[in-house]
Amino acid sequence: MQNKKTSTLMIPGPVEVSPAVYEALTAPIASHVSPKILEAHGAALEKMRKVWLASDDSQPFIIGGSGTIAMEMAATNVVEPGDKVVVMNSGYFGDRMALMLERRGVEVHSIFAEEIGAHPSLDALSEALKNKDIKAVFGTHVDTSTGVRLDAEVVAKLAREAGARSVFDGVCATAGEVFRMQEWGADVYFTASQKAIALPPGLALMVVSQDGIEARKRMSSLPPLSLDWMEWLPVMKAYEERRGSYFSTPPTHLISALDISLGHILNRGIENVFDDHQKAADLFRATFEKMGLVLVPKKGLAANTLSAVYYGAHPGIVQALKDRGFIIAGGLHPEIKAQYFRIGHMGYSVGEGNDDMKGLLNALENL
Ligand code: PMP
Questions:
Q1: What is the DSSP letter of 180?
Q2: What distance in angstroms lies between residue 132's CA and the mean position of ligand 1's atoms?
Q3: Please, what is the average pLDDT of the chain?
Q4: What's the gap in Å between 14 CA and the centre of ligand 1?
Q5: Between the CA of residue 68 and those of 22, 94, 178, 289, what are the distances in Å?
Q6: Do 111 and 89 form a contact (C-beta atoms < 8 A)?
Q7: Is 2's pLDDT higher than 60?
Q8: Res 1 pLDDT > 80
Q9: Strand partners, 167
Q10: Which residue, of 16, 177, 255, 366, is most buried by count of CB atoms within 10 Å of its CB?
C-alpha cells in the first residue's frame, strides 16, 4: 500500500512517478535471474535505444547508481590519462565533469559560458577542435543549475567532423529534451532515473555508440573495475537475450519500474513526449512573464525540463508554494544561489492526465 502523499514534488529531480511505477516498486522480491526480471531487464535495454533514438548497434547500460556514477563511467571509459578533451561548461555540472576528468589525468580545456545563463561559445569549440589531438567533447545537455540547454546537435556534429567522440550529460534532459543520438552522431548520452524518466533515484542509464565502445577497447589505462563498460557489456548482452548473467547484483525493483516507465514514454510516442515538455515549459514561461519574473537563461536558451527564475518581487516563493502543497527548489549555482529558484517540469508530472503541473501553475498565478 502506498504511503499517503502530502505534497507534490516539482523540483528538478526527483520528480513524481506514476501509480504503475509505484506498483512495480512494491512487487514481491524476485531473483535477478528469474524469468520476470530477465524479461524486464532485456525489454528495458531495448526500449532505451528507442527513447534515446539510438542506432540498433548502440549499447545501452543499466547500472545501479546515480547520475554522478554515469558521469564517472563516461569520464573513465572514453578517455584515459594524458588525453585532451573539451568541456562545454554551462554551470555546476560542467564543473563536476571537468573535475572528474582532471582526476582521471585528462587534460581539460573548458569553454565557459561568458556569463551565467549564456551558452558556451560554439565558435570557441570549432577553434579548439582545430587541435587534432582532442579525443572527446563533453557537454551538459541541460545544466540543472542554470536551466541552460546546450545545442547538443551542433556540438555532436562539430566533434564528429573533428574525429572526436561526443559525450552528453542528459541527467536533466533525457526523455524531456529533443535528442537524436543516431542522427546527430553522438557517442554517449547518459542520465539518471529520477528525472524525465520518472522513477525514484538509483539508476545510472547510458547508451554508447560503437565508436564509444571502441574508444574504451583501445585504452591501455583501465577504468576502475565496477565502472568498466567491458565488465558490464557481457551482462547487458545476456539480459537482452533474456539469459541469466552476473557481474554485480542489479536493483531489480527499479529495473522492473524502468521497463514500465519507458513503456509509457514509448506508448505516448517519444516525439509527443518532447512536445509535452515544450508545451509545459512554454506555459511556465508565460506565467513567469505575467508575474514579471526573469529567467536565469538568456533568451532562447531555456530548457524545457526545468525553469530557473530570479526571485524578483517574490523572495518567499519557495515557502509560499510549500504552504500550498508544492515543493520547488532554491538555487544551486554557487554565484547566484540566493537569488533564484528552480521548478522541475518533466516526466510524469507533465504527461497526459496528470494535474500536478496545472495545480502548480494555478498556485503561481494566485500567489
Ligand atoms: N548532471 C546533471 C545535469 C544533474 O542535474 C545531476 C543531478 N541533479 C547530476 C549530473 C548528478 O546526478 P546525481 O545527483 O543522480 O548523482
A1: -
A2: 30
A3: 97
A4: 10
A5: 24, 12, 22, 34
A6: yes
A7: no
A8: no
A9: 138, 188
A10: 255
User: Is residue 240 within 8 Å of residue 61, measured between CB atoms?
Assistant: no
The amino acid that residue 67 corresponds to is G
CA distance 58 to 76: 19
Whole-prediction pTM: 0.98
Closest CA to 343 of 355, 365, 326, 367: 326
Atom of ligand 1 nearest to the CA of 13: 8
Q: Whose CA is nearest to atom 4 of ligand 1?
A: 171
What is the grid cell recorded at 54? 539510438
Is residue 210 within 8 A of residue 57, CB to CB? The reply is yes
CA distance 209 to 77: 12
Q: How far apart are the first and last CA of the chain?
A: 34
Rg (CA), the chain: 20
Amino acid at 159: A
Question: For residues 357 and 99, what is the distance between their CA atoms, to the nearest angstrom?
Answer: 36
Q: Are strands 165-169 and 306-310 parallel, antiparallel or unpaired?
A: unpaired
Pocket lining for ligand 1, CB < 6 angstroms: 13, 66-68, 71, 93, 140, 143-144, 169, 171-172, 192, 201
Reported as a single tens digit per residue, the pLDDT across 114-165 is 999 999 999 999 999 999 999 999 999 999 999 999 999 999 999 999 999 9
Specify the 3-state DSSP secondary structure of 70.
Answer: helix
pLDDT in tens, 56-72: 999 999 999 999 999 99
The upper half-sphere exposure of residue 17, i.e. CA atoms within 13 Å in the direction of its Cβ, equals 24
